[in-house]
Design a protein that fits this description.
single chain; 143 residues; mainly alpha; Serine Threonine Protein Phosphatase 5, Tetratricopeptide repeat; 9 helices; 69% helix; globular; phospholipid binding; clathrin binding; cytoplasm
Length: 143
């Protein structure tokens, strides 16, 4: 079953909101990154109080994935990076409050079946995000 259909089924079964569906799509296991238009839509939704909490809850859930779902983690970090820079300021605030969750990903490990270290992408992205979150001036400059 193609991943898109499987994701649509899970979305229906779990009755995900529009915002949650967008985050799930942006952080899917597909081998390509989230589109800038999709990330832009999600960034706009972070200004809505209800959608904001749905988006962030789904991102934190994705960041807790591991193993073969390393793309969920990597893309969630990519999306977070984008949202910190272009979404509601509450995104950066919540990330600062939960910075340990991002910091622990600097030890993320996953070697795929071809013996390729896929964890390095996650480790690097988490380090970049932590540096950004800790640098108030740079954070203001990026926004």
């Amino acid at each position: 079953m193609p991943s898109t259909i499987r994701r649509q089924m899970k979305n229906m079964v779990n009755n995900y909101s529009d915002a949650e569906k967008k985050v799930r799509e942006a952080t899917s296991n597909d081998p390509w990154g989230p589109s800038s238009s999709l990330m832009s839509e999600i960034a706009d939704l972070t200004y809505n109080v209800v959608a904001f909490s749905e988006i962030m809850n789904m991102i934190w859930k994705r960041l807790n994935d591991h193993g073969k779902n390393w793309r969920h983690v990597y893309k969630a970090l990519t999306l977070l990076d984008y949202l910190i820079k272009t979404g509601s300021e509450r995104v950066a605030l919540q990330c600062k409050e939960n910075i340990f969750a991002i910091q622990t990903l600097k030890d993320f490990q996953y070697i795929d079946k071809d013996a390729k270290d896929q964890g390095i992408n996650v480790r690097e992205k988490s380090k970049q995000l932590v540096v950004l979150l800790k640098d108030e001036d740079r954070l203001k400059g990026e926004r």
